[in-house]
Amino acid sequence: MSLRPIAGPSRRLILPCTRSHSTASRPTPSHAYAVPPPLPSRPGPPPPPPPRTEATSSRPNLTPDQHDLIARIVRVDQAGELGANWIYRGQKWGSAVRGDKKTAKEVEGMWASERHHLAVMKLVQQQHRVRPTLLYPLWQAMAFGLGAGTALMGREAAMACTEAVETVIGEHYDDQLRALKPLLESTASTAVSPINPNADTVADADAVTPPHPSLPLLASVLEEFRDDELEHLDIAVEGGAQKAPGHSLLSAVIGFGCKAAIKVCERV
């Protein structure tokens, strides 16, 4: 297990890292949506996709507040994956302009992962009938500009951008998983008391209703994507992110922008 430093304007955390950079050969929760993994583990055609199930083709019966929570999670994550795709697109372009083939190749590997994330989140958005963000064109332009601009500044600046973005995204996925936790708990059904039919209903210990299967799957997908983003953070740190000129200021500005974008996309 390695330790991952996370730099921020006011704190520095150490998070455990238990995954390797190459996990394409492992079955992943997102594969339940019949989207092939981003990097095939062996030559030849990919394995046939799994059949669609209740977990991937239906949506739960939720209260308005619960549906609002799912909608905010899915909307902002889909927008975030779109932004990540355009950041890496810009970084690859900027690295290629500088003739930095090494960085362009590393960026392409991370970009492949983000394309997979976006394909899955589009299906999740359709499944849960969530309106996508209305700011797609704006995020595309801003994300490409951020990626291209930092890549043109040099390898370290591009990696500092990735470090700052993935730090915020990793923390945000953790916040979402905590918010989802109450929806993942089985609930006891209620029944009329056999002793006093006029009394309030009581919990029936033998009648436990598990959560709709789409909800544990959504949580597992978020965990998978969070771990992927933290792998990108590892790559960025190992690639010299903290050696970038003005690293602290650059990280603070990009991190603030990411947090602001998250708040806006949850609603708009």
UniProtKB/TrEMBL annotation:
GO terms for molecular function: 3-demethoxyubiquinol 3-hydroxylase activity; metal ion binding; oxidoreductase activity, acting on paired donors, with incorporation or reduction of molecular oxygen, NAD(P)H as one donor, and incorporation of one atom of oxygen. It is an enzyme of class 1 (oxidoreductase). Keywords: Iron, Membrane, Metal-binding, Mitochondrion, Mitochondrion inner membrane, Monooxygenase, Oxidoreductase, Ubiquinone biosynthesis. Pathway: Cofactor biosynthesis; ubiquinone biosynthesis. Its EC number is 1.14.99.60. Residues 1-64 are annotated as: Disordered. Residues 35-52 have a biased composition (Pro residues). Fe cation 1 binds at E81, E114, H117, E229. Residues 19-28, 54-64 have a biased composition (Polar residues). Signal peptide: none annotated. It comes from the Eukaryota. Its main location: mitochondrion. One of its GO terms (cellular component) is extrinsic component of mitochondrial inner membrane. Binds 2 iron ions per subunit. CDD domains: DMQH (cd01042). Its cofactor is Fe cation. HAMAP family: COQ7. Catalyzes the hydroxylation of 2-polyprenyl-3-methyl-6-methoxy-1,4-benzoquinol (DMQH2) during ubiquinone biosynthesis. Has also a structural role in the COQ enzyme complex, stabilizing other COQ polypeptides. Belongs to the COQ7 family. This is 5-demethoxyubiquinone hydroxylase, mitochondrial. It comes from Saitozyma podzolica.
